[in-house]
Design goal:
Blueprint lengths: L2 H13 L2 H8 L3 H15 L4 E3 L4 E3 L1 H29 L3 E8 L6 H13 L3 E8 L1 H9 L5 E6 L8 E15 L29 H13 L13 H9 L5 E4 L10 E5 L6 E8 L6 H17 L1
Parallel strand pairs: 3-4, 3-5
Antiparallel strand pairs: 1-2, 5-9, 6-7, 6-8, 6-9
Length: 298
């Protein structure tokens, strides 16, 4: 059964008149009457009572009219939904987050702006380690991911830089250097360093170790914290000092202090990563929103 049969029948049922229905549909009356007869033959029962002036619905016609209206409404909704997805204004967007990037205000300011501009897009956020994010992005389980650089595996994806931040030193307040404003890494050569596991973010891990080696010492690494964000808690518990991105200084923990690191070259970047072949309209809207935000900030 063709959808146009339903549209023709609904028009006749609503106007109760073939002539007015034909005018509303923009066709002539004879073809309309023929299509309704063809519909009735296909169903096997009359749907309309032909009167001298107009028509009335039969009992079968009344039931068919209700269902036909629902079918047409659902069809229209399905078409609009598909068109919206094609334009990137509806649908879903799965986004990954490295654990430490969630503390940077630009990330959620971007998502808030995007959600205001595209309220019918459902955001599906998921936090994971860098290695997991890269794998899920490669396998198509994520549309994009907010990652922390340096990250060697991220080079296989498109990257758009969002922010660059310095690494800061976190000390327990009982440490002799906790009253200092700026600290050099070389001053911490005798203090154990709290680190995250290498597999969480290999490139950043090696960057931190290399900075210590350039400062003249091989760091004494104690127990590992599960994530960058949990390192601060271990410093608060007295396990040693740590290097964390500047945005993590918003984390409130007892008995700790944050200090600028004299090694100015020790920095980390936040970027949005996505697959190079991905041409999703919804993803493009996110990229456009990010570009607009970065232009405003500069």
């Amino acid at each position: 059964m063709e959808l146009r049969y339903l549209r023709y029948f609904v028009a006749v049922a609503q106007t109760r008149n073939f002539t007015r229905a034909a005018e509303m549909l923009g066709i002539s009356q004879p073809p309309l009457s023929q299509q309704i007869l063809r519909l009735e033959r296909e169903i096997g029962t009359p749907l309309l009572k032909r009167l001298t002036r107009g028509v009335e619905l039969t009992e079968a016609g009344e039931a068919f009219y209700q269902d036909a209206c629902q079918i047409l409404d659902l069809t229209g909704h399905a078409l609009e939904k598909a068109k919206g997805i094609a334009r990137g204004v509806t649908g879903k967007l799965s986004l990954g987050f490295a654990s430490s990037v969630a503390f940077h205000q630009d990330i959620f300011r971007l998502l808030q702006t995007f959600q205001q501009q595209f309220p019918s897009v459902t955001l599906l956020p998921r936090e994971a380690s860098m290695s997991s994010l890269m794998q899920d992005l490669q396998e198509g389980l994520l549309d994009a991911a907010f990652v922390r650089l340096p990250c060697e595996t991220s080079k296989t994806f498109n990257l758009k830089l969002i922010a660059s931040e310095k690494m800061q030193i976190v000390l327990h307040n009982a440490h002799p250097l906790s009253t200092k404003q700026e600290i050099s890494l070389s001053q911490l050569s005798d203090t154990p360093m709290v680190m995250f596991p290498w597999e969480i973010a290999p490139s950043l891990y090696e960057s931190i170790i290399s900075a210590c080696v350039r400062a003249g010492f091989q760091p004494q690494t104690g127990p590992h914290a599960p994530q960058l964000s949990s390192i601060i808690g271990m410093v608060s518990a007295g396990f040693g000092f740590a290097l964390v991105p500047q945005s993590l200084s918003c984390v409130a923990m007892p008995d700790i202090s944050f200090h600028p690191c004299q090694e100015a070259s020790l920095t980390t970047d936040i970027a949005l990563a996505w697959r190079r072949w991905d041409r999703s309209p919804t993803l493009q809207h996110l990229l456009d929103t990010l570009t607009q935000q970065l232009n405003v900030d500069t």
